[in-house]
């Protein structure tokens, strides 16, 4: 394994990234260098042929523990871990022990007793992966917790932008939609502001969380103003499952004011790109034709970059754990 | 006849606003004399005499904790005992427990069950309505006859305006206060059907946004207080706001007091000692109701205590098992222990020179007794010997592992002050070893 590592390190300017923690729980608290290194390393993975030998985590055991539905994130993590040679077990706990009354921590420590190296956790409650990290001794990756953070999504978004535009610093990036209920928005806001981008948030006041400006962003209720001259327009899904029903009058009204269409997009920078973490509601957040416009839409690239970013993260957590 | 002599002790008596060094002589269950330079020879033929050398120590009336939630009835004795070890000699139970205190027989039962002259006196609030959502008034009159000192829905607001109006006018007739947990529960998302994903969990603002937790706007408190004041004026009831936590809420109460509305309020230590930034680690010991507010609200609570807008400090004790707290924040139970830290945190206000000791003691003794019109503990001749002895300056640190109730939001906090003895009706209910060492038989 070490030979392989050395070989790879010799062939590239990047090497496994050492982080300040062997968990990845949030972007908030990370520094610019860590983020930059993870993106660079992921960029390297993204450039490799998918049949390249990157299996330097053989014997490493990863549990994908999902307390909430997910397709793309779970598959992406699984692929990333497999490409690194790790063993992956997927566990869906949406209808399992939790329903039998077992406490979250008992479930987690049961899994921990099987001595995995890494738990990838998605949970509907904000902060749940932090609870895991406080009590378990394996590494934890937050794969999305409630409305809190989805750090790997922000990292893959950053890689996607970097590969298309070349840099993040100074870019005007508009994050539009259901900010209040979005963990993707929070992770992106933290990451992009740390990296020196100008972040604007666009949402109706009912979906704009209180005190958001204090996170270093500008807030807009008018989408046309909010995306004016933007380089990147990031759309978010309306998280109906986290709403009470009083946030929006209707989907068609939402689309009229906050859905991305040609007219609104024409106000952005002429080369502006469109991103969406998925799953998309066509005709609600985004006009269907724009979503499919391969010149403007990076939505598929985002999915593709997910695997590379997650490889760099899993590798970094293993590396960090053994360096500490 | 048994005698105890507390030699050279500083006596704090908030009613007379004097604190000076005295010798206090207890005869059986009564205070016999408070004098300067007592000559023990007078008692030379009496036996037994317990002699406490109290140089440097302070005596104050036993503390009245006007807001204690015990959860389940079987925990009552333990709660009484722990309370006594922390200077509390009377406590008032909220009706939200199992079984609920919503009928005369349970009110009677719980007082009988807790009756023990050597343990803290247990008073009770009756539930105002049959259950939290109910439109049906409880038997306030019958409960009052059996000792209910006021009426409240405890940790829930009495929400319906018509019901509140009726409850208030009825309580006014029987001369009992209405105690309100002031929160517009629609606004804080608590009334949303079954789903837990949109219920308010903490104070709304930058911190809730960072944590991705659902915010409760601070105005949810003042909205309720403002409405209630209108109804209090209409009905003439004595209206008491429990655990007030916001600047706006306190401002409105201050104004109403000036207008002559019969209104009082209390707060609890978390609201003058902590703010919402404590939650940044998702530590569920800080999941409280009302939620910890912003720093400006905390400062307003302190101003309210200083200028007398806030009449009392209560522990707001709501002990929770660790199992319900070692949970993701959203799933964790609400509440924290309080009886073990009430006095220490109140003394902190004295050490920080925010209030003087006399005022601190009145917030914990005379004022709550006055609000609820219950027996006042007083250090005076011929009064019941119910008092505490403490060291104002003993340095310590709150350690959750040393507490008997959990969880505490004050783990690791440095403290000055320590209760060394609690005497209830002449019984030495609790004597710390430091005081034991000062006993000369």
Describe the structure.
The complex is a heterodimer of chains A (324) and B (441). Chain A is built from twelve helices and nine strands. The two termini of chain A are 19 Å apart. Chain A has helices spanning 2-11, 32-47, 72-83, 104-113, 128-135, 151-165, 183-194, 223-226, 251-258, 262-265, 288-291, 299-323, and strands spanning 61-66, 87-92, 118-123, 139-145, 172-176, 198-202, 218-220, 232-235, 273-275. In chain A, α2 (32-47) crosses α12 and α3 crosses α12 (299-323). With 324 residues, chain A is an alpha/beta fold. The model of chain A is unreliable at 6-13 (pLDDT under 50). Chain B has 441 residues and is an alpha/beta fold. Helices cover 29% and strands 25% of the residues of chain B. Chain B is built from 14 helices and 20 strands. In chain B, α4 crosses α6 (219-235). The interface between A and B is medium-sized, with 30 and 27 residues.
Please outline the helices and strands.
The complex is a heterodimer of chains A (324) and B (441).
Chain A: H1 2-11, H2 32-47, E1 61-66, H3 72-83, E2 87-92, H4 104-113, E3 118-123, H5 128-135, E4 139-145, H6 151-165, E5 172-176, H7 183-194, E6 198-202, E7 218-220, H8 223-226, E8 232-235, H9 251-258, H10 262-265, E9 273-275, H11 288-291, H12 299-323
Parallel strand pairs in A: 1-2, 1-3, 3-4, 5-6, 5-8, 6-7, 8-9
Chain B: E1 3-13, E2 18-27, E3 30-35, E4 49-53, E5 58-61, E6 63-69, H1 76-85, E7 88-93, H2 104-114, E8 121-127, H3 140-145, E9 148-152, H4 161-173, E10 178-180, E11 202-203, H5 206-211, E12 215-216, H6 219-235, E13 239-241, H7 247-258, E14 263-267, H8 269-273, H9 295-307, E15 312-313, E16 317-318, H10 322-325, H11 342-351, H12 357-364, H13 366-372, E17 387-397, E18 414-424, E19 427-431, H14 433-436, E20 439-440
Parallel strand pairs in B: 1-4, 1-5, 6-7, 6-16, 7-8, 8-9, 9-10, 10-13, 11-12, 13-14, 14-15
Antiparallel strand pairs in B: 1-2, 2-3, 4-20, 5-17, 17-18, 18-19
Helix pairs in contact in B: 4-6, 6-7, 7-9
């Amino acid at each position: 394994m070490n030979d392989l590592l050395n070989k790879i390190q010799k062939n590239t300017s990047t090497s496994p990234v050492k982080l300040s923690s062997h968990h990845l729980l949030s972007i908030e608290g990370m520094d610019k260098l860590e983020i930059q290194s993870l993106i660079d390393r992921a960029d390297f993975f993204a450039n490799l042929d998918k049949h390249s030998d990157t299996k330097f985590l053989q014997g490493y055991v990863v549990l994908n523990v999902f307390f909430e539905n997910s397709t793309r994130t779970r598959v992406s993590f699984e692929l990333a871990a497999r490409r690194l040679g790790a063993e992956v077990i997927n566990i869906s706990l949406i209808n399992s022990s939790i329903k039998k009354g077992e406490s979250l921590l008992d479930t987690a420590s049961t899994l921990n007793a099987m001595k995995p190296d890494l738990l990838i956790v998605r949970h509907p409650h904000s902060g749940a992966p932090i609870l895991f990290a406080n009590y378990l001794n394996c590494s934890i990756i937050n794969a999305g917790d409630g409305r809190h953070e989805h750090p790997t999504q922000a990292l893959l978004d950053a890689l996607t932008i970097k590969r298309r535009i070349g840099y993040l610093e100074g870019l005007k990036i508009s994050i539009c939609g259901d900010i209040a209920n979005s963990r993707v928005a929070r992770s992106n806001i933290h990451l992009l502001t740390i990296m020196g981008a100008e972040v604007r948030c666009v949402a109706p006041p009912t979906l704009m969380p209180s005190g958001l400006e204090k996170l270093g962003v500008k807030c807009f209720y008018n989408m046309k103003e909010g995306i004016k001259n933007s380089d990147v327009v990031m759309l978010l899904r309306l998280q109906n499952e986290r709403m009470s029903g009083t946030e929006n009058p209707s989907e068609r009204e939402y689309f009229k004011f906050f859905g991305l269409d040609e007219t609104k997009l024409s106000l952005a920078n002429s080369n502006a790109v469109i991103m969406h973490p998925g799953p998309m509601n066509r005709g609600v957040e985004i006009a269907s034709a724009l979503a499919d416009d391969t010149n403007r839409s990076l939505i598929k690239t985002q999915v593709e970059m997910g695997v590379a970013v997650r490889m760099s993260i899993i590798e970094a957590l293993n590396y960090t754990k053994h360096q500490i | 006849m048994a005698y105890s002599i507390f030699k050279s002790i500083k006596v704090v008596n908030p009613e007379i606003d004097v604190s000076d060094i005295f010798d206090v002589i207890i005869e059986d269950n009564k205070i016999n004399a408070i004098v300067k330079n007592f000559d023990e020879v007078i008692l030379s033929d009496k036996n037994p005499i317990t002699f406490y050398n109290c140089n440097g120590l302070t005596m104050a009336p036993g503390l009245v904790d006007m807001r204690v939630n015990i959860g389940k009835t079987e925990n009552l004795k333990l709660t009484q005992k722990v309370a006594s070890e922390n200077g509390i000699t009377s406590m008032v139970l909220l009706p939200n427990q199992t079984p609920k205190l919503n009928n005369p027989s349970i009110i009677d039962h719980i007082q009988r069950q807790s009756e023990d002259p050597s343990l803290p006196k247990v008073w009770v609030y009756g539930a105002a309505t049959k259950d939290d959502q109910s439109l049906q008034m409880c038997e306030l009159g019958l409960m009052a006859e059996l000792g209910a000192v006021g009426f409240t829905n405890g940790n829930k607001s009495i929400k319906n305006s018509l019901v509140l109006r009726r409850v208030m006018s009825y309580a006014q007739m029987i001369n009992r206060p209405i105690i309100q947990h002031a929160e517009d529960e629609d606004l804080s998302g608590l009334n949303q059907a079954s789903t837990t994903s949109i219920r308010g969990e903490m104070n709304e603002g930058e911190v809730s946004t960072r944590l991705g937790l659902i915010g409760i706007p601070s105005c949810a408190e003042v909205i309720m207080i403002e409405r209630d004041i209108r109804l209090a004026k209409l009905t003439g009831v004595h209206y008491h706001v429990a655990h007030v936590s916001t600047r706006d809420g306190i401002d409105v109460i201050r104004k109403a007091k000036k207008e002559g509305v019969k209104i009082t309020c209390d707060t609890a230590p978390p609201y003058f000692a902590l703010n919402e930034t404590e939650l940044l680690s998702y530590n569920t010991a800080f999941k409280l109701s009302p939620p910890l507010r912003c720093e400006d609200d905390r400062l307003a609570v302190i101003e309210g205590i200083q200028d007398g807008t806030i009449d009392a400090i209560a522990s707001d004790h709501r002990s929770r098992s660790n199992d319900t707290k070692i949970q993701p924040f959203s799933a964790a139970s609400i509440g924290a222990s309080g009886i073990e830290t009430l006095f220490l945190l109140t003394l902190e206000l004295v050490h920080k020179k925010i209030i003087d000791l006399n005022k601190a003691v009145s917030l914990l003794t005379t004022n709550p007794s006055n609000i609820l019109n219950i027996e006042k503990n007083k250090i005076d001749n011929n009064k019941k010997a119910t008092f505490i002895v403490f060291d104002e300056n003993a340095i310590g640190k709150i350690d959750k592992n040393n507490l008997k109730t959990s969880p505490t939001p004050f783990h690791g906090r440095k403290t000055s002050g320590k209760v060394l003895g609690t005497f209830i009706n002449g019984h030495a209910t609790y004597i710390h070893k430091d005081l034991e060492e000062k006993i000369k038989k």
